[in-house]
């Protein structure tokens, strides 16, 4: 056993990378759920984003276009969910699961020509002096741009929910759609936009995996990250900064676990792999004392009966 | 402009007609997809829907529909009770795994003893395993008001890790040359859930699925508890006045769905699958949620929906084998079927009306 | 009800007969555990299938079903292939073992080939590759290339196949570099590229400058490339998109020669049950081109080692070797028997840490 082999600075830097796809998807889903909609199709939207981003990056040579395409693809796929739940009033749980099934199949069809290709690298931040600073450099100043986007998005969503009129309306719709409707807000339109935002974020998260974290395309490569993102939203009790913290915790458990293994610590791997989920349950129990945290209308459909 | 009007009563006609319309719509959309992939659409569609039922080898596929459909139906029946009352257990996959681990573990504990009571003990252990796993979210919800959707979902991942752990450790076959996976229960007669009549696909799990359908039907239509379940889902306030105790309802619904999922896992591991292995679970617990909704949470509907899902799986495999369709195309096809079924359900509860322009 | 089952078996026999008479093409079925687009295990088996098609042209028809879960679904897919007239069926995952045996009992005339298992029957053969021979070559290069003397190893699950590879690589790395140490990380998944990326990064951060992987994605290659000075090897497929550096060589699963030979045997009527464990010599394990990033003398030694393994003059597990606990395993000059190798559940002397249980 040699714990000194673990470099805490590098550990933090790599857990930030590991956390980013979960964070991106979770921030999107957080907004969706704040609007009172539960979309279990995150995994499906992520993987479609992963292949769309990958394909466009390979074809255009530019990761920038790739990420845009990923967001657009995620949003388009989420429109299917909109049609089902907002127009056709279908059950949200079933629709979300169907969306994941559909997304997994669709991405595999789209990706048939892209197996075994190396995508162009996504540039990393490299500020002459700052990036070379000892501790701070690797943690704060030498990541790819999308990682910063994830943090910026967290801040933006936090500010928007807390301080803007838009955020207020969104929360109102999520708390009580009938009252919001009575006040003259367009419930369906607001929820549609929220769902599309969630789709775009999930698409970005997927592309982060296929373009930066791995980077390659293989079928089913998101391997369940979408479900972790769903857990994270609840873990964070629908608060953006807690989602960031939670993403680092979730990503961190894996990275720390692998670090301990490599350092020769005999740990029961499968029990450590369970720990994020057990911690989430624990947090859920603690949070349930606070009844105000969950959007009251979560998962319920709205129909304007005039 | 076109608006939706809620029907005072769900339409009888449409609730029967929508599944047919949806299947038809899926055939058209799916046919277009298959044509895009360069396959003959009519041939592909008929392979999926016709071949397993009436094709040359239907004598083999028809029983397989039962084998594939039974766990889906068994789990979905349990879930539907809770869903009707607004209790959302989406962790059936985990309960299914725990049922299989506990049931198989109980059986293997007796190995190589030969006795009639081993299989019944396994059945009880399997049901208990699923029940306990579902009682965790139930207890937390009753005691602390914790959201059961998320707790049950989280427990799926915990169960998956447990499965990997016992496959590599506790239940590993001592004669398996170190490979992961338990002994095969198919070659341990006292623990084997064999076909009751050879060649029919009927094993105890299929029997249990049919019994569950009947049980759920009677419960919902003839029993006070069933009435309470329906009342809680449709009119929670009225349910309170009628004296429904929510805590008991939660414990019953989650416990029941967990026990049924556990049973499904036990019957699967002791019969068709044969052994505990790292990849034992194949998503029945999640597919069953879809089956429950496709069946409109009605026992008979679930029976039909489960068989329909099984048909698309088996027909899809045949289409892969004989037409060279990629598995992904079948997945997309199944997704389409679900979309259409879910979307068209609208017509059961709403009426499309045309009104003079007026902002809604 | 007895009548139904009687009819069923009669129809099965009939189905078989018509299948055999109607076509003079040899029909070969493949059951895959993953999608053909996984870029690794299944991808390579599918390349073998395509090679069969190319070799025999019109004389053969191949069918496949991908992403088949192990268990009852696999049994159904195999039955379906047999019913539709397949003459030879390759089942390409360890978990298909019992289903293959079950189906083979029902179709005595159809030949079955199960990959990586150990149960045979009159119409069931098993085949597997001696990947550990490739690991020996990798270990040799890795031991020479490392400067930090720390070699990282990413394993999937702690099963004999993986443990064999670790031991083989370690023995040969130690041989050329007595100071070398292995850091082993278990991913506990068959397939999760993101986790493999994490594992590779962790190993690199802890000082490893050579990464060996028993997982199929290119994630470790990309992590090594980002780190700049870390050596990797392709796994399952060549991963040549990362050559000449960080990927300096690779172990490739090449199933084509075996699949062609077995199909030929069925055509000729000479097919017999066999327990095949082929290595470099027979071409089932191929060593991808060793790039120029490897010094010329090391490359020459590696090629010589490969040749010795290939012609059988050298065995990758040749004594004197001790087990991790210091007990004797192989005496001087003794080579390991296949039985011990097949169920290998111990580390050799020098490796640190325990195999997780």
Describe the protein.
The complex is a heterotrimer of chains A (306), B (360) and C (357). By secondary structure, chain A is an all-alpha fold. Helix content of chain A is 69%, strand content 0%. Chain A starts with 7 loop residues before the first helix and ends in a 19-residue tail after the last helix. Chain B has a domain at 68-305. Chain B has 15 helices and 2 strands. In chain B, helix 1 packs antiparallel against helix 14 and helix 4 runs parallel beside helix 8. Chain B is globular. Chain C has 357 residues and is of the alpha/beta class. Chain C has 2 domains: 24-129, Response regulator (Rossmann fold); 131-253 and 284-342, Response regulator (Rossmann fold), CATH 3.40.50. Chain C has 11 helices and 14 strands. The longest helix of chain C is centred in the N-terminal third of the chain and has 21 residues, at 2-22. Classes of the chains: A mainly alpha (306), B mainly alpha (360), C alpha/beta (357). Chains in contact: A-B, A-C, B-C. The interface between A and B is large, with 52 and 50 residues.
Determine Rg of chain B (CA atoms, Å): 22 Å
Structural class of chain C: alpha/beta
CATH fold type of the largest domain in chain C: Rossmann fold
Determine the number of helices of chain C (DSSP H or I, runs of at least 4 residues): 11
Number of beta strands of chain B: 2
How many independent structural domains of chain C?
2
Measured as a percent range, the helix fraction of chain C is 40-55%
Oligomerization: heterotrimer
> Quick one: biggest sheet of chain B?
2 strands, antiparallel
Task: Work out the strand percent of chain B.
Answer: under 5%
The tally of beta strands of chain C, per DSSP, is 14
What's a quick, concise take on this entry?
The complex is a heterotrimer of chains A (306), B (360) and C (357). With 360 residues, chain B is mostly helical.
Offer a few descriptive terms.
heterotrimer; A: 306 residues; mainly alpha; ABC transporter involved in vitamin B12 uptake, BtuC; 69% helix; globular; B: 360 residues; two-stranded antiparallel ribbon; 15 helices; 2 strands
Topology:
The complex is a heterotrimer of chains A (306), B (360) and C (357).
Chain A lengths: L7 H27 L7 H19 L2 H25 L4 H19 L25 H5 L4 H19 L1 H11 L1 H6 L4 H27 L11 H11 L4 H23 L6 H19 L19
Chain B lengths: L1 E5 L5 H25 L4 H9 L1 H4 L3 H27 L7 H19 L7 H27 L3 H21 L35 H19 L1 H11 L1 H6 L4 H25 L13 H11 L4 H25 L3 H18 L1 H4 E5 L6
Chain C lengths: L1 H21 L3 E6 L9 H16 L3 E6 L6 H12 L4 E4 L5 H10 L4 E5 L8 E6 L1 H15 L4 E6 L4 H17 L4 E6 L6 H13 L4 E4 L5 H9 L3 E6 L10 E7 L2 H13 L6 E4 L6 E4 L7 H16 L9 E2 L5 E3 L7 H5 L15
Parallel strand pairs in C: 1-2, 1-3, 3-4, 4-5, 5-11, 6-7, 6-8, 8-9, 9-10
Antiparallel strand pairs in C: 10-12, 13-14
